[in-house]
Specification:
It is built from five helices and no strands. It is mainly α. The longest helix is centred in the C-terminal third of the chain and has 62 residues. Its EC number is 3.6.3.-.
């Protein structure tokens, strides 16, 4: 029982320190990556921007950097937490209960790893589809905003033509 209490205290303190360290550093990483990407984009030729749609560039700049931030922050935290907690539980079970029962309890682990791997592949495929949808949405948004400028310009031209037509009538 004492082992579990001590482990709980260390886990709590460790999580507090890790969260402060990791979530601060992952935000700095995200900022650095965005700045580097912006610098990289400013060095690219006009052909690059003709070749790739603006929506694609925005989607990758947003989603990919956010995914890297998640892995660098929460992913590292969860990995360390899982390894520490899992190891502590397995060792405690083997020492205090029975090592054979511990081995039996660990039998489903390979199946769980296989299931996680299959789920990861499905999630990756869906993330790719979401990335493409986000890219198309960004393209449409950019086209719409650019189109608003043109539409407003035409709207001004129509009013100008009306004004000119009135002036011609009275001349």
């Amino acid at each position: 029982m004492l082992i579990l209490v001590v482990t709980g205290i260390f886990t709590y303190l460790g999580r507090y320190v890790w969260r402060n360290m990791i979530f601060g550093s992952d935000n700095r990483l995200q900022r650095t990556l965005r700045l580097r990407l912006f610098e990289h984009f400013t060095k690219m030729s006009p052909f690059f921007f003709q070749r790739y749609r603006t929506g694609d560039l925005m989607a990758h700049a947003t989603n990919d950097i956010n995914a890297i931030q998640q892995v660098a922050g929460a992913g590292v935290l969860q990995l360390a937490d899982s390894v520490l907690t899992g190891s502590t539980v397995i060792i405690t079970m083997a020492i205090t209960i029975d090592w054979r029962l511990t081995l039996i309890a660990l039998l489903p682990m390979p199946f769980m790893a296989l299931g996680s791997s299959m789920l990861g592949r499905r999630m990756h495929a869906r993330f790719h589809k979401a990335q493409e949808s986000f890219s198309r949405l960004n393209d449409k948004t950019q086209e719409s905003i650019s189109g608003i400028k043109v539409t407003r310009t035409f709207g001004q031209e129509k009013r100008m033509f009306r004004t000119l037509a009135i002036k011609r009538k009275w001349s």
